[in-house]
């Protein structure tokens, strides 16, 4: 099967290209529920252009996206087991939010003149309006070895049942991994690979906590974990990421 999709400009991550988590979730969504039950690995091969037709080829063992002859990314079923640390409380996480790099007026911004680290990112961009961006502002929280974001997903992102679609959950899990390294004074490059496992649905307007923590570094590969918890403290999804860039 082959379908044609577009990644709208509102879903950008790096300027003029698609948010890595969103694009990864979009590809993962085309795998069957049985294939995706234990996890999905998405490798991003090239920047995803915005507002252009993307051909998604759904094959028995994988999903792959192309623009012309250029492979943008591919998704494969992959079992993911990750030791997920206990998250901080929502109230404590919310109190730490003003210290997020996403809101830091002194940080070197990806977009000069914008607010915080990555002003235009669909996940963490502070200059993206409510209902247009996810506004996941991860920050260091006392007693937690990593970063966390207090997040109430806007109903604008929900489907007809009030639940968040796969690509939105993947997008929300994206940036806290990079912010975990920022918290240690390390600026990584782009998201190269993301493996995620969705455990249960996530409802809009719930008081969620998203965490991010560093795993290890291998040369230019920076490995991080992220997880999303609902307002009952249940882990709804987690991911393992590889960020490619600076040593």
Q: Which parts are unreliable, with pLDDT below 50 for 5 consecutive residues or more?
A: none
Radius of gyration: 17 Å
Topology pattern, helix = H, strand = E: EHHEEEEHEEHEEEE
CATH architecture of the largest domain: Roll
Question: Structural class of the helix and strand makeup?
Answer: alpha+beta
Oligomerization status of the protein chains: single chain
The major pleated sheet works out as: 11 strands, antiparallel
Number of strands: 11
Mean pLDDT: 96
- Helix count, DSSP H or I runs of 4 or more residues: 4
Q: What's the CATH superfamily of the largest domain, by name?
A: Hotdog Thioesterase
With strands numbered from the N-terminus, the spatial order across the biggest sheet is 1-3-4-5-2-8-11-10-9-7-6
Domain module tally = 2
Give your account of this protein's structure.
The chain folds into 2 domains: 76 residues, Hotdog Thioesterase (Thiol Ester Dehydrase, Chain A, Roll); 155 residues, Roll (Thiol Ester Dehydrase, Chain A). Helices cover 15% and strands 30% of the residues. It is built from 4 helices and 11 strands. The chain has an 11-stranded antiparallel sheet with strand order 1-3-4-5-2-8-11-10-9-7-6. The chain is globular and about 50 Å long.
